[in-house]
Design a protein that fits this description.
This protein has 79 residues and is mostly helical. It contains four helices and no strands. Helices cover 51% and strands 0% of the residues.
């Protein structure tokens, strides 16, 4: 009996190729755009929600990103 590793059992996300993205999004290479790009309405709504979280507030966008990355690292988040 062969045991599967965590890497072999981890679910994979489908990354949207250029032809599946709205024309305005085709130059973007970030994984959020490529992952949610299959559903442009969802992608637009997600960015509408996310942008104010990053841009507004007393803490700089740079520091927020550093904190986000550290939290992901501490939780062994691969994405």
């Amino acid at each position: 009996m062969q045991t599967m590793t965590a890497e072999q059992t981890r679910p994979r996300l489908s990354i949207a190729p250029d032809h599946e993205l709205p024309e305005a999004w085709r130059t973007r290479q970030d994984l959020v755009t490529r992952t949610f790009g299959h559903n442009s309405a969802l992608l637009e709504r997600w960015y509408d929600w996310y942008r104010p979280l990053i841009r507004d507030g007393a803490v700089s966008a740079r520091l927020k990103e550093i904190v986000r990355l550290r939290v992901a690292q501490l939780n062994a988040c691969a994405f």
